[in-house]
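User: Second chain of the day. Same drill as before.
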Amino acid sequence: MKNIKIILFLLSIFCFQKNTAQVWTPDNGDGTYTNPIIHADYSDPDVVRVGDDYYMTASSFNCIPGLPILHSKDLVNWKIISYALAKQPPFETYNSVQHGNGVWAPSINYHNNEFYIYYPDPDFGIYMIKAKKAEGPWSEPLLVKAGVGLIDPSPLWDNDGKAYLVHAFAGSRAQIKSLLVVCSMNPDGTVVNNDEVMVIDGHESEGTIEGPKFYKRNGYYYIFAPAGGVPTGWQTVLRSKNVFGPYEKKKVLEQGSTAINGPHQGAWVTTQTGEDWFFHFQDKGAYGRIVHLQPMKWVNDWPVMGEDFDKNGIGEPVTTYKKPNVGKKYPIEVPATSDEFNEPKLGLQWQWQANKQTNFGFPTSLGYLNLFCNTTTKNIFNAPNLLLQKFPAEEFTATTKLTFNARLNGESTGLIVMGLDYSYLNFKNENGKLYLNQKTGTFDKTVSETETKPVLIEQNTIYLRVKISKGAICSFSYSLDDKNYQTIGKDFTAKEGKWIGAKVGLFALGEIIKNDSGNVAVDWFRVTR
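Assistant: Same format as last time:
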């Protein structure tokens, strides 16, 4: 009997894992893939190949840990393997929530047997970090070029040992925008010089040109740069025989007749078999900036991306296409979503809203995640200790089992969908009794909240669920036994955050300052179809 129970338990885990892996799978299993390759908010992606391995990083803004590192063997199947930025400087700033600030578009390169990431903080300047292995450890961030409004850096080490950096400007800080400059830096890449040369002014024909990536091929210097704005733009490529220009330009990827808006800003990668591919994002509102992969070839020393369906000389995004030839076949993988909290470490899908503090909570060796009901801010919008992950698909369901050990009046915990508009199931201690309701908030310079009538819950273990349907429509429910779920509140349409997609996750908050606090033991968090 005992062996049968073990077998049934293992089968249930296998079936659950199989189900969760299918929330979004780009690999069709027949030698083709379907875009997007990652239906999650990995905005401004950059990718580098090292041998037979591919590594991606992306913008992380105020979410910590930052600068996610993803790994793939075939450019289609990706998993999260680490973060390059454990804590974001300056600490006195990012210990509190900074919506939309922080890590903007980064670049990842491999030079002299080391990984380099250059990332911008538009309020402080351009930082560099490096590591021997993509998994880390990564060095402490070094401010290589201080300045307000400096964004989107990308380095180039030339054949003669000289080094350069291209970057853009954020008009909100620098009062100049839609132009790119190239400057020199020392060969170690630790000092970026103030010898900028403007190589393009995009005001007349390129709209908001930004997000450059620097390459060299066949004697040409190339700058790949998105233009035209995030939701509506296109991909422009500049080329020159001289690093400082003058550069000629060409539009190489546009939406055209497809449904893929704003296809731009990403990375060119050449496989070990000689194929060329281009990564870019698509802005999908509440779902964030999701990642697409386009075939690419060179014609007359210009890149051609996607397919030129209307024969106007400009590529358009493909939907389903033959997988890259990397010499071998590899198993299907997807970025992590569900977490059983059975390991004494937090899953890599999770990020806080600010630099993590010790009293936010701990993974345990006891089979659950422990979160503390900290006194934070007056509203949940600015709470740094929200533990969140990206929307992983257009449609999915997130369910969590938690046990609330309230100690002080006004403590609360629950399940939240977070963005500029947000909604959450609020499980709260009121004078020794536990109540559940839905709270919904809107941010427009200030936060305003509405809430439903609380329901008395006569146990401290509860199952909370949100089902996300097409259009990012969120329906909340709860259960006391994980079998019978009751709808609570009203449907809520998720909205993107500040430069990021909507996120889903957990919280534990308090209202009273004392020398102790209540906690919530989160048994599991499961993402299913």
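The helical segments are 2-20, 91-94, 171-174.

User: Great, on to the next one.
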